[in-house]
Design goal:
The protein is mainly α. About 45% of the residues lie in helices and about 10% in strands. The chain has 13 helices and 6 strands. Helix 9 packs across helix 10. The protein starts with a helix and ends with a helix.
Length: about 325
């Protein structure tokens, strides 16, 4: 074939291919550029397996083969460390999507449960999230949201179930399951840290009473080394049928009325409330706050001594006494 003819044929083929790219492809696949360039937002709930996450991504149109994506996630080691949250991902091959997920920082609801907060304050913190307060109330009411190993011990009152929430920082996927996922994660952590340290075959009442005691210790203690001492004093007072006289319970009673108290007067101690342990004998009807693991351990292993009285000094630490006369003497010496 003459060279001029071959050059002409090549030119015509190239021109046809160029015309195909410029005119036909954009018309036939008008959405293709936007499909490839736009990110897809997908919610991956907490605690799902790699297989389930891959299926969710396939349903969202991020990949075409969920099984291949699950394998790719396993190959790069993110199948067992999958973070919950909202992912923004490009549609691509399973390997590329897995790489995107490994580098992604999903949108999450960061929730820090601080030791010593009450049920009401936890609900208020969830109030920062849309419908969060209602979602939290609902989540605490449903026993199924709690770790399976603690469900048999749950009190009927959802407020009393705060003893099974472990203080820590949690990263929870946004959405209608945000509070339920938090309860699942928090109660599991409680079981991991405290469950193995419980006495053998404890009764439901034993755990509830220990949790309430731990909440009183949490409300009173500032120094960790004082927690077992305070737990021991409360238990000795219970055995002697003495009132616990915990200022923390009085502060809680006022908070239940919407009044915040930092310093208590003698009149404040007269508040008519089942939580006022200056007026009522025994433990309060339910926990006054979320206990830390240290307060739980103190309640499970109280210190053995003869102390029966205590008061907080000006430095925040407590002064302990074996008798009421000694207690009064030490208060006078401290200028209180």
């Amino acid at each position: 074939m003459p060279k001029k003819n071959s050059d002409l044929i090549f030119f015509l083929a190239a021109a046809s291919f160029y015309a195909l790219l410029i005119f036909f492809v954009p018309h036939a696949f008008s959405k293709l550029p936007s499909i490839l360039s736009e990110k897809v937002k997908v919610l991956i709930p907490a605690g799902v397996s790699a297989q389930r996450a891959a299926a969710i991504l396939e349903e969202a149109g991020v990949v075409e083969n969920a099984q291949a994506l699950a394998r790719a996630m396993s190959d790069i080691g993110i199948d067992r460390a999958l973070k919950p949250g909202i992912y923004s991902l490009f549609r691509s091959t399973p390997k590329n999507v897995a790489r995107q997920m490994a580098k992604a920082k999903p949108e999450v609801f960061k929730f820090t449960l601080i030791p010593g907060v009450s049920y009401r304050k936890i609900a208020a913190l969830f109030g920062k999230y849309k419908d969060g307060r209602e979602l939290f109330e609902k989540a605490m009411t449903d026993k199924g949201n709690f770790h399976a190993s603690v469900r048999d011990y749950l009190p009927e009152d959802p407020h009393a179930r705060t003893i099974f929430l472990m203080p820590d920082t949690y990263f929870v996927a946004p959405g209608e399951n945000v509070a339920a996922d938090f309860v699942k994660m928090s109660s599991k952590l409680w079981y991991d840290r405290i469950g193995s340290k419980l006495p053998e075959d404890p009764s439901k009442k034993t755990i509830a009473d220990t949790g309430i005691l731990a909440s009183l210790v949490e409300g009173e203690a500032k120094a960790d080394d004082e927690r077992p001492v305070l737990a021991g004093i409360f238990l000795r007072r219970l055995r002697k049928k003495m009132r616990l006289q915990s200022c923390a319970t009085v502060i809680y009673a006022w908070e239940e009325r919407g009044i915040k108290k930092k310093n208590l007067s003698y009149d404040d101690l007269k508040i008519d409330s089942p939580y006022n342990t200056y007026r009522n004998k025994g433990l309060p009807p339910s926990p006054i706050c979320v206990p830390s693991d240290k307060s739980w351990l103190a309640a499970l292993h109280p210190a053995k001594n003869d102390y029966l009285f205590f008061f907080a000094g000006k430095d925040g630490r407590h002064v302990f006494s074996k008798s009421y006369s000694e207690h009064l003497k030490k208060q006078k010496e401290a200028g209180l």
